[in-house]
Amino acid sequence: MLKIEDLQLVSALAQAPSLSATARALNVTPPALSMRLRKLEAALGLALAVRTARRLSLTPEGERFAREAAALLAQLQALPESLQRDDSRLAGTLRIAAPFGYGRRHIAPVLARLALRHPGLRVQLDLRETPWPDHHDADAVVHIGVVRDSSWVARRLAPNERWLCASPQYLERHGAPREPRDLLRHRCICIRENNEDVTLWRFRRPGRRAAGQKAFETVRVTPDYVSNDGNVARAWAEQGLGMVVRSQWDAEPAVARGALVRVLPAWQLDPAPVTLLVPGRKGRSARVKALLECFDEPS
For the whole model, what pTM was predicted? Predict the structure, then answer.
């Protein structure tokens, strides 16, 4: 007879790239997890996964098992909530995935307010480099930038312009660029995130322009420094290492205190709106609805 632990095991295997990653997600050791998987396969009389030296992948039977296991687990988790007549007393777990910096600064306070309002609710905030599409079992995902190929509904949380910035010390040593193409002579810092082409910087000049001025200009920079952490990249820029493109929400405080200066302010970069991705109306739980209500309130 199948146990809930069996459903959780195969569902986790479908979401993680390796056996060790699955073991971490389930808080067990890889040998113990491997033994559990072998016992389950023996009980079912079929292979659920194929193991190689580098990764583990599910067989077609394993993929079907994982889909149905995930659906059953979701139904089990939603059962207590469906029995509650008073939606103001939420229970169960609400899982949110968000980018590191924005999640710490803007999402965590909203979740704290939600948790205080619903003491029976368990809240899990998972900060990741790429929350989408690597959302796994999250109930809601915060994404910065354009969302592609999503069946979930996107709700905009903030418009979020992107600014080109450098420290006053860097600009004093190297001078300020007058046009985007001048960046080819400057040291640049790039942030590797969301599988974007991070070295291609697209600029547009809004409003009225003088004769001969371009409306758009695209520059392919050669980065001197690269990081997958936006806070690290901004700190490098503040220390005078080079130019960096950062979201307005992150760069604005540094500009206000004088650690950074906005460069080429007459030019705009492609915006990166902050959106909250949630399932369609049919797939939303009362927990997700309560989360949406929290974001609708003035901060």
Answer: 0.66
